[in-house]
Amino acid sequence: MTKFKGFTDSETFTQLPDGFFHHLLKEIKDADELKVTAYFLWRVEHMESPIRAMKKMDFDVKELGLSAGAIQSGLDKAVQRGSLLKVEKGADVYFLLNSP
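Now predict its structure.
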């Protein structure tokens, strides 16, 4: 395990829905699903587009520390749980946050 050196004083912050802490955090038992969900929330919070969707290829293997298979497994579980929605449009597959 690499020791975390702490947050810097120049950190930016990411808003997370309260439902993530009140519901999902205690329900998600699978590390892949938790990492994929947290990464998704972080990425969409920093998107400038009004459409906040991601493709599987947008999930960075290096940033997540997961294999492509583990990312797919995490996405499948998040979709099955209902925290993420999967939308297929032609050959493209998009993932969106399950929110209004």
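The beta strands are 53-54, 84-89, 92-97.
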